[in-house]
Amino acid sequence: MRIVITIGGSILISEFTHEMFRAYADILNSLRNEHELFVVVGGGRPARDYIGVARKLGAGEAQCDDIGIDVTRLNARVLITALGESAYPSVPENFREAVRFAASGRIVVMGGTEPAHSTDAVGAILAETVGADLMINLTSVDGFYDRDPQKYPDARFYPEISASEMLEHLSESDVKAGTYEFFDHTALKMIKRSGIKTIIANGSDPENLLRAIDGGIGTTVIPE
């Protein structure tokens, strides 16, 4: 099975330690013999911190996005280091490179590509490009809620939801650099038009990646 996995930067680098990179590398290496894997990583707090500094210095949103992209690619390089020989040694900067690197038979790890594309959008475009059988979005919550469950205890969890319904929920979401939550509009539109099977799950425990592949946790996004 060909799988695109997006891992939020807040999952991989909530603290400046190597443990989560190592744990994910171990899980990914355990899957590589049975599946063709593509991984997209986010920037997390370091990206938001750099973006915040740049914005105070007068940088525009496109400039801020470029800075965030650089951080995501740095995180990708660290994960490649953790994966060792099983990963392609370079970070693709676009989708053509990702496809070319995948011909090596190794795990492809990438960060951002261009301004205004969140980690989720990159993952969805990549999934469409490579014809993925499954996309898994690993985030800091258990799946899709109607609002931030870390702020609102009464937030409603959806074990299943259509991409169209998610678009309605996110119609008022902020689109500034570094502020994306859940899926952005581009990602959801890609899921709809290409029929990409998608699962959103909590990535705080790397073992949840295995559970998500089996369909046992998270929110299933129906591509309609």
Name given to the CATH architecture = 3-Layer(aba) Sandwich
Across the major sheet, the strand order is 3-2-1-4-8-9-7
What is the oligomer described by this structure? Answer: single chain
SS-based class: alpha/beta
Sequence stretches where pLDDT stays below 50 over 5 or more residues: 175-180
Order of helices and strands: EHHEHHHEHEEEEHHEHE
Spell out the CATH superfamily.
Acetylglutamate kinase-like
Query: Regarding CATH, which class?
Result: Alpha Beta
Strand content: 15-25%
Number of domains: 1
Mean pLDDT: 90
CATH topology: Carbamate kinase
Helix content: 40-55%
Q: What's the helix count?
A: 9
Protein name: Uridylate kinase
Subcellular location: Cytoplasm
Subunit structure: Homohexamer.
Pathway: Pyrimidine metabolism; CTP biosynthesis via de novo pathway; UDP from UMP (UMPK route): step 1/1
Short description:
With 224 residues, this protein is an alpha/beta fold. It has 9 helices and 9 strands. The chain has one domain: Acetylglutamate kinase-like (Carbamate kinase, 3-Layer(aba) Sandwich).
